[in-house]
Amino acid sequence: FCKVHSLLTNAIFIFKVNITNSFQQENDDLTNDTKGDSRLLRRSKRRWVITTLELQEEDPGPFPKLVGELFNNVHDNTELMYFISGPGVDEHPEIGLFSIEDHKNGKIYVHRPIDREKTPSFMICCDVAKRLTGKIVDKSLIVNIRVSDVNDHAPQFPEKEFNISVKENHDAGQPIFQMLAVDLDQENTPNSQVLYSLASQTPAPREHGFRIDRLSGEIRLSGCLDYETAPQFTLLIRARDRGDPPLSASATVHVLVRDSNTHAPAFAPDSYNIQVSEGQVSQGVLRLRVQDGDSPFTSAWKVKFNISKGDEEGHFDILTDPETNEGILNVIKPLDYETHPAWSLVVAMENEEPLFSCEAGRLQKPRRAVASATVSVQVTNANDPPAFHPATFIVSVADGAGPGIQLGIFNAMDPDRTASQIRYTLAYDPADWVTLDERSGGVITRKQVDRESPHVNDSFYMIIAHAVDDGVPPQTGTGTMLLFLSDTNDNAPTLHPGSRHLEVCESAGDEPLLIQAEDGDLEPFSDPFTFELDNTWGNTEDTWKLGENRGRSVELLMLRSLPRGDYSVPLFIGDKQGLSQKQTVHVRVCSCPDGFVCAEPSVAGAELPWGALAPVCAALVALAVALLFLLRCCSVSKAQRQGRPTLQEEGLQTLIPYNVEGGPACTQPGTYLLCPASIRQLCGADVWEDDPGCRPRVYTEEGECEPAKSLSSLAFSEHNLLLDLLDSLGPKAAPLEEIYSETAILSLKKSIF
């Protein structure tokens, strides 16, 4: 209870010096008076009486020294014993500082000096008890022993020395730095109140210097600084308290003055005469020297230049050398002697920092300090290269234009205005499409132009020409012709390379395949494309159909489940203008063990069921029989008609040579064309040139005709060959058409060749 009560009391009560405190408590003792039927109550009072309990900080003794005395006035003459406890007695801080030497009286002693800054007061608990029984006879009394302050601490600065800087043009009304000293004596007393003063400043100012506010410690200027006369100062600042006696401390402040712009720059000299050759970009044609009295490499010393007059066309610029502060004049756009032989430039400069001044100890408003110099430039004449007019021009020609077409004329003139001869040369023609007339500059095509050439970029083909004069030394000018190739519809759509061979899992069902097309032409000769199946070929219309047309692609769907194998799907692809050509999509139906990716061909073939192989085998057998039959027919040694050549003499008449006058227009001597009636002729049928059913059929793709020197070198469509064979078999070929696939064609090709 005593400890808790001590904490609460310490937070609420502060005992004052030289005042005697008296605490009174009253307890009611009830006694019974048995006279009659009435009861009488009698009250007795007990009192604590103490003297002033106050100590002085750092009291030198002697010790133990009496602090004060406790007294408790009890109603009877019982002998009492006094006890104390709490901080300073048997608790921290400073255990054993206080004690009662004789428990018969309440005198409290202190045993050593006390530091108020460490412990400003002590709250101790006082108790009184009967001497014989030790029973507490009164409630505990909380006594506050207060330690009075003495001025034993001088003000303290956080550092002994301070280094600060200030601009030369600092305003006198603005603080430069604030000093702050701390006194550890009791707050809000004269012992802890600090006053500041400027003890000295070195060098001593002539007129104006520094001052310090005695209460706030703020250091200010009393006038203007002059970097040239005093670039730095040393200030001795003193802090003193108001105790009795007063204590003080000092600190040193080193002030570095930073140079400001007090000197205007000047050119030395302020006029120049130079010569510059025409037609050249030149760096550093002139260096303009500058004088400035401020500190080098500061913003007060550095200057910035500009050409204020005489360079309206932007031929010159001027930069600052960061090391020497000189102005470097450059020619950034070639000069022309013929049009402008002389220039007069006005170059202005000023410091990066505005100029300031001080009058009567007060700063004046900053102002610009601008200096100027005149530069006279004489342009010297030189042989100028010929100039093309225009330097670049565009010529349009239709894609596919042939040789001999006049495209345009390069036109170059000599700016020197002399009767010089100009010679044109072709500098850039990567596809070797044109010729250039050396005298006139005319450009004529020598080959057919092609927009699909790798040298054409976005339909533009670049041609560069040089014009060389006969000056000394000769000079060369450059001109550019951009040949725009307007597109023509000379390309039919083709299958995208990724759509020529497609794979589909046999378990895919009706999942569509996506066929993509492309066209080398531009709009409006390209997409959207049209797609149409060639239903005249085999059983295409019963097996495949086209789905959604997406402009540049179309969906391909199977109408029925197909066995594993390779299939050909012929279709026509047309562009926006209707130009189309036939393309073939090769579709492989395969086994997909994982349900998504076709197995290797060998693996897939090993897993084919016999039911799927049976039609293929039947087709191969039928074709083999047909070939044997054909070979048998070809063993006839004589033609049935007289005068007609034998089969052996004319190469079995499988190919009809057209090397006579009046033959097909695209044939040459030794060129062979396959006749659709070839099969019948091999069998000995009377089919000649006058037979309208035996007209040469050209099996070739788009392009030029090429001669075939032998049967083995003849390139023709396996599909068409098979169709001829099937036609020759007549009704017997129907079963073969149902099971016909590309696999059978490949087998037939191997059998024939």
UniProtKB/TrEMBL annotation:
Domain of life, source organism: Eukaryota
Entry protein name: Cadherin-like protein 26
Organism, scientific name: Camelus bactrianus (Bactrian camel)
Gene name of the encoded protein: CDH26
